[in-house]
Specification:
single chain; about 325 residues; alpha/beta; Rossmann fold; Dihydrodipicolinate Reductase, domain 2; 2 domains; nine-stranded mixed β-sheet; six-stranded parallel β-sheet; 8 helices
Length: about 325
């Protein structure tokens, strides 16, 4: 195989970006089809991508593709991923992989019987800041505290899911990716403001060795916030994901006599990187950079947080393995 024959399922806000990235990777991908349910979306897809076939059902092109990007509403992820895996197609699924733990267990059973690539779209892992800080995070002296804020004014999108599935999943996944101490228990509270689902959430994650994380997410905020800070015996690290800056205050004075140092890092095209890794995994038979286990763990943490919000009781974490 020289190129991966690709379909993009869903031509909404994010689906449009994925279609652009498929075309940007024309050396590795052949853009076969766009699967879009609604007539208006089909018309827009044909106008923007005249060389791709536009259909209403993935079944219409299943024999013409090697892989598909699932960029449809979360409620459709399970059935689509299940169908693609059963037909031995490689899958890139935007986060979350599915809606709940029950679906996650079923997907694990199906995926274990096939050798196709399954990559999950946890795009927040691709900030250059983490390349610079991951080793430092993994070697912090316990116990340490993590605080993460991710909030924005209401944008009217992703209202088919709650703010935990839409936003907090990024930060719950980052806890697993960046730090060695694993989550063991979650407490959470939330508020429903504009929708019938949680629009704001406060999540407290207890981790191994006495470490803990406090995550605040909201989609009805007065301003945009995306930052992460870590407080430990070694000092404090603050990452501003909007300004692409890292601020550090160590436990001692720096050589230039200051107590805080600042560094900038480059902004990346996360979606383009995800596409490149996906095609490389398929063409070179490499494991997915963010695979099934990562997707299952994130779904379990989201499911646990939602249970804690609904019951107002702590929920113990038991990963699927």
């Amino acid at each position: 195989m020289n190129k991966v024959r690709v379909a993009v399922i869903g031509y909404g806000h994010l689906g449009k970006w994925h279609c652009q990235k498929v075309e940007a990777n024309s050396d590795s991908a052949e853009f076969v089809a766009i699967v879009e349910k609604f007539a208006a979306g089909q018309e827009a897809a044909r106008a923007a991508h005249p060389k791709a076939k536009v259909v209403a059902d993935i079944r219409d092109v299943i024999n013409d593709i090697d892989a598909a990007f699932v960029v449809s509403p979360t409620s459709t992820h399970f059935e689509l991923v299940k169908y693609l895996l059963e037909n031995k197609k490689h899958v890139f699924c935007e986060k979350p992989l599915c809606s709940n733990d029950s679906e996650a267990v079923k997907l694990k059973e199906i995926a274990s019987s096939t050798k196709v690539i399954l990559q999950v779209g946890h795009s927040e892992r691709f900030h250059e800041a983490w390349d610079k800080l991951k080793a430092k995070f993994e070697n912090l002296t316990s116990p340490f505290t993590i605080r993460i804020n991710r909030a924005a004014p209401f944008k009217g999108r992703a209202t088919d899911v709650d703010v935990v599935q839409d936003l907090a999943i990024h930060d719950l996944d980052l806890l697993m990716h960046l730090f060695k101490q694993k989550p063991i228990q979650i407490e959470a509270t939330g508020v429903k403001i504009r929708t019938t689902k949680w629009d704001h959430a406060n999540i407290h994650v207890k981790m191994e060795d006495g470490c803990e994380a406090f995550i605040v997410v909201g989609r009805n905020h007065v301003k945009e916030m995306r930052d992460l800070e870590v407080i430990s015996k070694e000092g404090m690290i603050f990452v501003d994901l909007f300004t692409n800056k890292i601020h550090e205050a160590s436990s001692s004075q720096y050589e230039d006599g200051t107590f805080v140092k600042e560094a900038s890092y480059s902004k990346r095209d996360h979606l383009l990187l995800e596409h490149q890794y996906f095609y490389q995994s398929i063409l070179q038979n490499r494991p997915a950079i963010i695979g099934l286990k990562d997707g299952l763990n994130a779904v379990h943490l989201v499911d646990s947080a939602l249970k804690a919000m609904e019951t107002l009781k702590p929920v113990d974490i038991h990963f699927h393995g």
